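Run folding on both entries below.
>entry_1
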Amino acid sequence: MLFRNVFWLWSPVAVMVGLIFLVSSDSSPPRMPEGVSNGLIHGLSYCILAMLILRALASGAWQKVTLGRIGCALALSIFYGLTDEFHQTFVPGRVADVYDLLADTVGAIIGLFVVWTWSRLLRMRHSL
């Protein structure tokens, strides 16, 4: 039972981390469509990652979304962004970029703000 809960909570995080690692391991990543920036892709990826981490930390329960868990999810997201940028220094044709890390951080903050706001609205609705 415990393994199933841990798997259900953390496997989406592992899948997202794996996808980010896979894309950042590519020496020649695909070109973005017209009007889609690299920063937007980074931000969206880390928005999703941070939301998934928060979901796991909160045991999948809206009422367990706290500022402490949000801070932890943000720290873990930024830490993974740092490790990913470091990883790219070993990939031919790729470099570590502080602007990519900034986009990762902004995306994570936006995602966590959305989840926090949504959880507050749900809690207020249930308290009525």
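>entry_2
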Amino acid sequence: MAVSLQVIYPIGDSSTFDHDYYAVTHMKLVAEHMGAHIDQVLVTRGIAGGPDQPPAYHAVATMVFADQAAMGAAMKASAPVMADVANFTNVQPQVLIGEVIG
């Protein structure tokens, strides 16, 4: 069964996030080190939390894997990706791992 890994970057009072670096450099590292194990990647930049509401998140990255083993293999290769986080944000990302049901 397919599984997803979502990396969620919440907005806080003093949080920073370099969207250009993230899109160009960080996601290139994801592709280089983890990409062989990933079926699909979707990156969403937060623009609103609803009508007339500011976004609650800088960004959400969703990676879909064929199964738990593929995600495990990607995570084993993720050290350079994880080490790069401090280069684009001071946010401690939240993570959600789930079964893809639709």
